[in-house]
């Protein structure tokens, strides 16, 4: 009887928390499909015109594409550099893992505003003009994604017993490079997908770096949302719900792929 009461209490807490978190999302969605909503409890009417206006706006399509390009490019760069680096640390220099855990947290030690000002001072007078271009954002987004990706992938390395896998591969005649690509990488899929999703969802919502370093010269999705804040609230709500729906879809796909990946 006590266990049943405890289970009911836990379910009540979980369902209540989920409901509280869902209410703002539901309210935003209803506002995004309402023709007008003033002093009444319910909207005066429902319409999809705001979504139609949003997806017919070439400025939104361009901003969305720019954000995808920057985020995906930064994550590809991160994957190419971080995975071999973690492999080297865990296989050849395992004692450096503690130091790496400290170093990867350094991007969080410096506020984005301070980092942005420092980057402007460094590259403003440089012969290579990258301020105001997507390339500087890709570089800064790489530093943001680094802690998320390193920690998730490092956990996967700790779980697969790297030394035994490599020894077994070497006994079967594989070189270290072949063992890395054919044995180690397939066992990192779950951690890799988890880190990519976590980093992607964070980078897509990043505003400070994109606003200071590029601004309207390379308008991303968050800059577009900021610039459109003075327009209709219904239009802005439609934009927010579109962003949320995309993140939700990406979460679902990442979860499905990660679940089907071999351990």
Mind sketching the topology for me?
Layout (H helix, E strand, L loop, with lengths): L1 H31 L1 E3 L8 E2 L2 H7 L2 H34 L5 H7 L2 H4 L2 H12 L10 H26 L2 H10 L4 H9 L4 H16 L3 H6 L7 H7 L5 H28 L3
Antiparallel strand pairs: 1-2
Please explain how this structure is put together.
With 263 residues, the chain is mostly helical. The protein has helices spanning 2-32, 49-55, 58-91, 97-103, 106-109, 112-123, 134-159, 162-171, 176-184, 189-204, 208-213, 221-227, 233-260; strands at 34-36, 45-46. A two-stranded antiparallel ribbon has the order 1-2. The protein starts with a helix and ends with a helix.
Average of the residue pLDDT scores: 84
Order of helices and strands: HEEHHHHHHHHHHHH
DSSP strand content: under 5%
Number of strands: 2
Distinct helical segment count:
13
User: Judging from the principal axes of the Cα atoms, what is the shape?
Assistant: globular
SSE-based structural type: mainly alpha
Helical coverage, percent range: over 70%
> What is the CA-CA span between the terminal residues?
39 Å
Main beta-sheet strand count, sense and barrel state: 2 strands, antiparallel
Low-pLDDT stretches are: none
Oligomer: single chain
Major beta sheet, strand line-up: 1-2
Radius of gyration: 23 Å
Could you write a compact summary of the structure shown?
The chain is an all-alpha fold.
């Amino acid at each position: 009887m006590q266990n049943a009461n405890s289970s009911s209490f836990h379910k009540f807490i979980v369902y209540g928390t989920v409901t509280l978190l869902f209410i703002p999302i539901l309210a935003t969605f209803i506002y995004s499909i309402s023709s007008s909503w003033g002093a009444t409890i319910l909207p005066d009417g429902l319409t999809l015109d705001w979504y139609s206006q949003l997806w017919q706006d070439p400025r939104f399509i361009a901003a969305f594409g720019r954000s995808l390009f920057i985020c995906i490019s930064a994550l590809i760069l991160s994957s190419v550099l971080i995975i071999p680096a973690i492999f080297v640390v865990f296989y050849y220099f395992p004692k450096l893992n503690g130091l790496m855990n400290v170093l990867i947290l350094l991007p969080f030690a410096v506020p984005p505003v301070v980092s942005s000002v420092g980057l402007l001072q460094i590259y403003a007078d440089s012969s290579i003009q990258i301020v105001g271009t997507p390339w500087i954002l890709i570089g800064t987004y790489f530093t943001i994604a680094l802690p998320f990706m390193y920690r998730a992938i490092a956990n996967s390395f700790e779980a697969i017993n790297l030394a035994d896998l490599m020894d077994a591969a070497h006994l079967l005649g594989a070189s270290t490079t072949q063992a890395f690509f054919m044995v180690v990488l397939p066992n990192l899929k779950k951690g890799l997908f988890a880190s990519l999703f976590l980093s992607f969802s964070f980078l897509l919502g990043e505003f400070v770096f994109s606003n200071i370093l590029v601004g309207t010269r390379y308008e991303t999705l968050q800059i577009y949302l900021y610039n459109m804040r003075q327009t209709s609230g219904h239009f802005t709500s439609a934009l927010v719900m579109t962003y949320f729906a995309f993140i939700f879809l990406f979460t679902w796909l990442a979860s499905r792929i990660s679940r089907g990946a071999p351990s």
